[in-house]
Specification:
Chain lengths: 108, 113
């Protein structure tokens, strides 16, 4: 069983829609990363959080430590948001354990 | 904005050859990592490095792999005798300390033929 599960695996939406990607994990963690991976392969960190909620522009990330669940929201989605979004958790101090990613496609 | 730099972006090597993947972490960062992503699969942790020594490594990181910080800026991953299954995208990452976010390089795509 994967220690980090994301849903959905694939998501297609129209420009302007509100997007939610979910992440559940089964291990104790010290923090959680949301990452973005574009078709070229590079990985960009969007957020690291260990409690509560963070907002950056149109992106919002929340985490519920008790429920072992995090969500990434995108408001007013745009075609340039199309990418793979990855949830990764710090299992222990150093080791990031990654989810399989959610492939998001925003159509104009 | 400071960034993690990896070279080369793409390397093709023959099976059995040694390869060295290079990374320049962000200058004030103290924790360094290598990850890999086989095509179509999720990213996997390889090794973490702090204070000039390995702090944690995965089962993948066997005797064929080694890491080094040869000077104040570079952080390298060496694969001594490459196998076909080593073909993957390799990512370097760094962070200031254990409570801050990690920054990733653009990756090196290694193809073993």
């Amino acid at each position: 069983k994967n220690e980090v599960e994301q849903s959905p695996q694939n998501l297609t939406a129209q420009e302007g829609e509100f997007i939610t990607i979910n992440c559940s994990y089964s291990v104790g963690i010290s923090a959680l990363h949301w990452l973005q991976q574009h078709p070229g392969g590079g990985i960009v960190s969007l957020f690291m959080l260990s409690s509560g909620k963070k907002k950056h522009g149109r992106l919002i990330a929340t985490i519920n430590i008790q429920e072992k669940h995090s969500s990434l929201h995108i408001t007013a989605s745009h075609p340039r948001d199309s990418a793979v979004y990855i949830c990764a958790v710090y299992k222990g101090a150093q080791k990031l354990v990654f989810g399989q990613g959610t492939r998001l496609t925003i159509n104009p | 904005e400071p960034e993690v730099t990896q070279t080369p972006s793409h390397q093709v090597t023959q099976m059995g050859q040694e390869v060295i993947l290079r990374c320049v972490p962000i200058s004030n960062h103290l924790y360094f990592y290598w990850y890999r992503q086989i095509l179509g699969q999720k990213v996997e942790f390889l090794v973490s490095f702090y204070n000039n020594e390995i702090s944690e490594k995965s089962e993948i990181f066997d005797d064929q792999f080694s890491v080094e910080r040869p000077d104040g800026s570079n952080f390298t991953l060496k694969i001594r005798s490459t196998k076909l299954e080593d073909s993957a995208m390799y990512f370097c990452a760094s962070r200031v300390d254990r409570d801050t976010e990690a920054f990733f390089g653009q990756g090196t795509r290694l193809t073993v033929v």
